[in-house]
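Thought: the user wants the 3D structure for the chain below. I'll pass the sequence to the structure tool as-is, report back what it returns, then summarize two notable features.
Action: structure_tool
Action Input:
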Amino acid sequence: MNGADEEEYRQFVTARMETLRVTAYLLCRNWHTADDLVSITIGKLYRHWRRVKAMENLDAYVRGMLTNAWLDERRRPWRREQSTDGVPDLAQTSSTEAAVGDREELIVLLSQLPARRRAVVVLRFWCDFSVEETARALGISTGTVKSQAARGLESLRLLATSDRPGEA
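Observation:
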């Protein structure tokens, strides 16, 4: 990679690092794993920068790379183990306690969705992908994106109301 390409790459990654990190956290619900996923993604992006830098929607492509890296990590046997003795990671703090509580509740609810459905919901509603962009990123049909998004939202609604006593 020549100097101009490397500088362009650095500027791109620097500008999007925090967004990628938060997106990765929403997918995996662990800051350490999120950092690993971002590292994997930007490493792959570096290797292919000359080819992908001219893409029409590079941000969508990189989010797709991140999502695929997460799905690949979930398939690894050691990722299926979960520690129960440690304190869980908490979401970053925000300006109000209510916002933090809502965010933490949403992250807990997202973690209860199956991996593919969670990926669709995060890409569609957090990353603001279109149905077509989500389908391309995940390698599935647009109909599958629509059905998984609808089922994901319905599951989140049911989980949210079932966790609150007195509401139904």
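Final Answer: Structure generated. The helical segments are 3-28, 31-47, 49-52, 58-75, 97-111, 115-126, 131-138, 142-162. The chain has two domains: 1-77, 95-168.
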